Task: structure prediction
Amino acid sequence: MDFADRMHSDPAYSDYIFVVAAAPSRTLDDYKEFVEGREEYVKVLFNETYAALHHAQSAVINSGTASLEAALIGTPQVVAYRMSSITYSLMKGLIKVKFISLANLIIGRSAFKELLQFYVRGENLADETRRILEDKAYREKMLSDYCEIRSLLGGRGASAAVAKSMVESYREMTERSV
Result:
């Protein structure tokens, strides 16, 4: 919540509401310790991820399908992903990919920033979010890349295109690991 605290303390963003799209398997009690004392500017929503993304000016996304969903919806984003140091060390040696988010893997370049491991800090998230919100050219480039991602997925048959892209990325990854 350091990110939300930093953004809220900035006068330019003090009236913003920071929404946590809760995991369906969790309860409000699971988030209570993070939200406590921040109820004025942090809200937890259940079963409203798409609505939250649709109305958001920017999003901090945990990598996975959510990053692709945000790109398809058209929400500018920064991806943040952190795991245990041991898992990270093991995975870094086994898996060789340029990106961790589906949207960046599909487009084959960085459409949006991915902050990994030790770079996932409130200060970095706030800096990138401010850039998304304040740098019009940066934001427009991201949105343009999203159009390209949608085009690469091909509209109808998009699920098959995503599956194909994931299989190709996996094959490339395993071929480099051998």
